[in-house]
Structure formats: structure tokens, C-alpha cells
Amino acid sequence: xxxxxxxxxxxxxxxxxxxxxxxxxxxxxxxxxxxxxxxxxxxxxxxxxxxxxxxxxxxxxxxxxxxxxxxxxxxxxxxxxxxxxxxxxxxxxxxxxxxxxxxxxxxxxxxxxxxxxxxxxxxxxxxxxxxxxxxxxxxxxxxxxxxxxxxxxxxxxxxxxxxxxxxxxxxxxxxxxxxxxxxxxxxxxxxxxxxxxxxxxxxxxxxxxxxxxxxxxxxxxxxxxxxxxxxxxxxxxxxxxxxxxxxxxxxxxxxxxxxxxxxxxxxxxxxxxxxxxxxxxxxxxxxxxxxxxxxxxxxxxxxxxxxxxxxxxxxxxxxxxxxxxxxxxxxxxxxxxxxxxxxxxxxxxxxxxxxxxxxxxxxxxxxxxxxxxxxxxxxxxxxxxxxxxxxxxxxxxxxxxxxxxxxxxxxxxxxxxxxxxxxxxxxxxxxxxxxxxxxxxxxxxxxxxxxxxxxxxxxxxxxxxxxxxxxxxxxxxxxxxxxxxxxxxxxxxxxxxxxxxxxxxxxxxxxxxxxxxxxxxxxxxxxxxxxxxxxxxxxxxxxxxxxxxxxxxxxxxxxxxxxxxxxxxxxxxxxxxxxxxxxxxxxxxxxxxxxxxxxx
Length: 600
Fold this sequence. Notes:
The protein has 600 residues and is an alpha+beta fold. 46% of the residues lie in helices and 15% in strands.
């Protein structure tokens, strides 16, 4: 039996002990001299080949498709076919591990995680390979479990003419904290907090109708939605319970305390601390737990998109509370605070820098506004968000304007399509209103899209920045880097995000999140289902790499950026990165063709 094979990398580490024994028992080592054919075109596939030492080229019709180096699986994608359509040739003296095809096919059938590696579809492959050991995915399983997996309090119904006293008695007898009522038009909820507020009013409980004190703007989730959806609703709307609904009506109520008891992560507790903070010190203390939350969720295998969803809501709560602590109500009623860029899209997890702006109501002035804006940006620096190198912050008058001044700016960006204006327009399209008079932003958004005309020149100049960064995938699908360092943002993330943003602008989509943009573009048949899936999974993979190695940098006290050292990547990570960058490259070519970038 061989003991030479390394099982630490995926997909091989997903094999069970008994499967590893069978794998090693069947393992053979073959030698191929430089120039010798490893697998001939048209020859049957007898074995899975994994390169131990040397270099092997995959060729088709005389063209080299890719070159495999040490520890890479040579024919994983082709093995499912009985015969080889390509050919593999040693271009250096090479040692190859060989495992019989019949055994590999059997392991594929019995072990889905192992089998995922051999799928042709990059989206299926990445999604399935993300499922690692059950221990690593325990939290993700909890987040994706249906809400009914947690304790759901049975719905306690009262008639619309029931009294406050009736509600109190039902709460006591049913050991619940809320009751539901239904009048002619709406479903309402009456909670213990409402009961407390009523008692303070000293009105008679026996003769006061509950319908007058119930709340009718309810937040609900379907009984087959994941726990994660309920958690986001609670975080976003600062509520302690959600209605769980099914096809025939309300099933019951999921309480915050029961959701937290079900989960091992407590993002809602951080949100509660943010909401209760009355000073910057308390706010900083609440935010200090976020790094631990990110690390725990990442360590336990939670998808990067789910982590981003949670951080998006917490970050927006942080921005809103920071402004609230600094600015009096008089100012907040006449301004709208925006987060921009990746913060606006809700895709930022690690604190790279801050991007924000402020819309001011026409005619409103306040002597302290500039100082408050400066204090706001300084507070975010304290919370771990460095200043924006491009000064896209509220302390910069360029990004602190009245509504009318922003209208002029939006018009200017459309007419003067030089690079800086297109960058500013891209940032603006991702804007999200965080706090204050949000009608200011809504009017500006409507103004922009109503005034946006079919302008091929504008769209082409807007899409053009995807050409400024090369995709770091060279000849033979080899990864290219500078001194072993590859920039994930320049190499792939920016191209995907801005390419999708360009399509969204052309389709006049107000949606700002890249994943939601992809979904809507697919629904509108602008993106095919296959391409939409590949783009979504490719972006998620690049962001997951950035998060993984960003956390390592943070732990080492290094500056956070999008650079990764290729030497740090596992064989599987390099393999998936090649597949991902191939998707980026094809998408970039498609955008260049659609927007006729070669004419600029």
C-alpha cells in the first residue's frame, strides 16, 4: 500500500477513512519521459491521473489548452467520458499517481462532496465543494434550516373586539408574549410591550378594545424560508419577533430569544448593543465583537454571501447610530446619509475603507454641519474603517451637496463622460440611504433614471473601466502575478461587479446588490441561466478567497487589501481560481462586445 499520497487538499480530504484505504490500495505511480504521450486523443480513460512531479500539457487539435504542475489533477473534467477528446503530453520528466477509473466513479457515486470536483459546471462544482465536513458546516446548516426548525409559538388569535384584559389573560394562559387579531382588512399583533404601555395609560383594560392598540405593519417569513431570513428581518427592522406564515395563514410567531437559542452566532445581540448605545465608547464596544463574529462564521463554513448579508445590516445600523449620536434631530430631518460603493451594495465584509455622501435639503444650512461630517468620518476610522483614498466621504464638500446641486452633478456625469465622472457615477449607482430624510435620495434616484436616455456613448464610456485591469490568466490557463502576488479586485472582482453594473445601468435597474442584479438580469433574459450561475458563483469564490486571506492578514497586523500570495493557495484553490478567472475573461469579452468598447 502506498503512503505517498497527500489527502489534505480537497476533494481528496472529503474521502472517508475507509474510502482513503481503498484509494491508496489501488494507487499506482507511473513515469513519463519528456515528450511522451500520457493520454492519447481517442484513447479510453482507464484511470484518474494526479501529477506528483514534472509538467504535463493538455492539447486539442495541436493547441495547448493548459499546463499542469505538481499536485494538480490532470484529467478530472474528462474522466466522466469513456474516451479522451484531448491528449495529454509530458513536457518534462514526470511522475504521475494513477487510480483506476472504476474506483473513482464508485467514489463519485457514494460521496457527493468528492464527486462535485468532477462536474463540468463551475457553479455546481464550487457550490458542492463548499460543503466540507459536517463540523465545518454546522452553522451554515443552522442558518439554512427552515424557520420551523426553531421553536414557533402557536398563533394565539383573538377577535378584533376583544379587550386588553382578554389579551393579558390569553398571554398568561398560553405562556406567550404576543397575540394576533384579525379585523376586516388586516392582521394585527399585540405584544407584552404594548400591554406595558397600555398599563401606564391607566385606562380601563376590561372595556378597551385591543384593536385600538395593535400594530398592523407586520414582518413575516414563509415556513420554508431559512432561519437566516428571519434573522435578517429582525436585524434590519429592530424587532423581536416575526410572523411565520404558511399557505393557509399564520402558523405562529418566532421570537428573538428562540432564534438566538437555535443559533450559535448572535449577530442580533450586536445589533441590540448598537441600538442601545448612548456614546461613541459604547458603540465602539458593540462593534468590537464584529471581528469575532466574522471569524466564527468563516471558520464554521458559512457562505461568504450569508456573512455579507449579516454584516450589511449591522454596518448600516452602525452608520445610522453614529450619525444619530453626532447630529441633532433638526439636521437629520433635512439631510440623507448615504453609503456608497461596496458598502452600498452590501458586499463589504472586511473594513477596507469608507465611502459615504450626504444629501442636504435645498435651502437648509447649519453652522455645525461640516464639523459633524468630519466627526462622523473620524468615528468610522475609530471603528476600523480607514479614510477613502479618493476622499469619497461626507467631510469632502464634493460629496456633501444640496439636492439641487446633486441634480446638476448627475447631469454633468452623463454629459462629460471622462474616466473620473464615470467612476463617480458607478459609485452613485450603488448608493444606499442609511439615515435621515430618505425622500431626498428617492427623488434624486427617480430624477436620474427618468432623465437617463438611450445613450450608447454614455454606456460605452461607463463600461470602459473593465478594460483597465488585465485578467491574470495567461497562456495555457496559467495564473499570472507580480512577484507571486495576485490582486483579486483588479484581476476579477471589479470586472464582474462593474460588468454587471453596466448591464444594470443599461436596463435601468435600481437594484444595487450585485447578486440581486444578476438575478434580475437573468429574469429579464439579459443573462442566460448558465452564465448568471457562473457569474454568481465566481464572484462568491473570489470574495471568499479575499475574506480568507484578509482575515489572515488582519491577524498578522498587515494592511487589508485584495492581494493574495499564490504560494499560499492550495492546489484546489488554484484550480478553482483558474476556472473562475476563465469565467471573468469570457464575461469581460462579452461586455466589450456588447458595449462596443473597441470603438472608443
